[in-house]
Amino acid sequence: METILTALVSILQERRIFEPPADTRERATLSGMPAYQALAAEAEQDYEGFWARLAREGLSWHKPFTKVLDESNAPFYK
Question: What is the pTM of this model?
Fold first, then answer.
């Protein structure tokens, strides 16, 4: 029983980082963990501005949107 418990604790405390293959990294949108952390920090500081920027850069709009988050019917957000 102790061996199983030790194995479970070991799995729960996994700290290894598995790097993706080079060809996958070359095609990735984010260049690495620092780029991800910068993106996460941007989203945390101004989530509406963050999503507005991504929507403007990544989508084509027939008519520009005027509101990023509609909270009028919370918790059913649009």
Answer: 0.64
